[in-house]
Design brief:
With 173 residues, this protein is of the alpha+beta class. The protein contains five helices and seven strands.
């Protein structure tokens, strides 16, 4: 339902979560995917992770290790978004849930994702344009989840559609 490639799963999962907050959908960037893949490969070869980003580029990182590891971009994006359960909308600047806020940051327009595996370890990297988590801009860029009455999805080989009914108004993203 989210697609068969890392690119489709990355874009569709991000846009699903963004839709829940009423922010515009992202487009996929091959350039951001390239930079994310380079960093995922570096982390896998070095065995370490840490923040690595260029100016104006946002970043989310995930690392998972276990035998038979099936961690992927769907699970990583869900983990990042899951931080939003504890996000303080009253005092957004004080929140430490920066993975969540980057996923739903309103002014972000593009995403590119990559996965690298070595042994039982999986490294997932998402790069974003434009970067989120800018001090002083949280309130205008991190919107609360919208009240959803019904949601349904339609996927075909070319497009992924979100139709969400928000208080009797159909929102198509």
């Amino acid at each position: 339902q989210y697609g068969n490639t890392v690119q489709d799963r990355c874009l569709n999962t991000h846009n699903y979560f963004r839709c829940l907050h009423g922010v515009p959908p992202l487009t996929y960037s091959d350039e951001l995917q390239f930079s994310a893949q380079m960093y995922a490969n570096f982390m896998a070869s070095d065995g370490k992770s840490g923040i690595h980003r260029e100016e104006f580029i946002g970043e989310n990182l995930a690392w998972h290790m276990q035998r038979g590891n099936k961690y992927n971009i769907l699970k990583a994006t869900s983990d990042w978004y899951g931080e939003g359960l504890y996000f303080d909308y009253v005092h957004p600047e004080s929140s430490t849930k920066k993975h969540f806020t980057q996923v739903v940051w309103k002014n972000t327009t593009q995403v590119g994702c990559a996965v690298a595996r070595i042994g039982f370890q999986v490294y997932v990297v998402a790069h974003y344009k434009y970067a989120g988590n800018i001090p002083g801009l949280f309130a205008e860029n991190v919107k609360p989840k919208l009240p959803i009455l019904t949601e349904f999805f339609q996927y075909n080989s070319k497009n992924f559609y979100y139709n969400v009914i928000l208080k009797n108004k159909l929102l198509e993203l």
